[in-house]
Amino acid sequence: VRRLANTLGTALFSRAIRQPVPDNQSGYRLISRRLLQAIQNNRESGFEFEVEMIVTCVLEKYSLDWVPIRTIYAGEKSHIHPLSHLAKFLQITWKADRLVRAARSDLNG
Q1: DSSP string of 17-37?
Q2: The pTM is what?
Q3: pLDDT in tens, 46-84
Q4: Backbone angles phi, psi at 76, to 5 degrees
C-alpha cells in the first residue's frame, strides 16, 4: 500500500505542479531562510505541509533539487490510512494544480 500510494501520489503531484517530483514525502529538507519566511503562515500540517512547501517553491521560483535516498521499510507496518490520506492528498493536489495554473495564467496575461 505504501509504495503504491507514494508512486501514484508522486505522479499526480508532479502533474499538478507541472514539473517532475521524484518523491515529495521521503527524505530530509534543506530549507533556506527565505523559504522559511515564505512558509511561516502555511496552514497545513503533516504531509500536506510538505506539499504546500513545494508548491510555494514552484510559485516563488525557488530552486528545488532532489537527492536520492534509500528507503528501508524493514517490514514496518504502514501508517497510511488509505481513505483519509487519499482524500487529503487529492484535496491538496487539486489546490496545488489551481495555484500553479493561476500563477501561469497571470504570467501569460
Answers
A1: HTS--S-SSSS-----HHHHH
A2: 0.73
A3: 777 888 888 888 888 888 888 777 767 667 776 667 777
A4: -65, 145
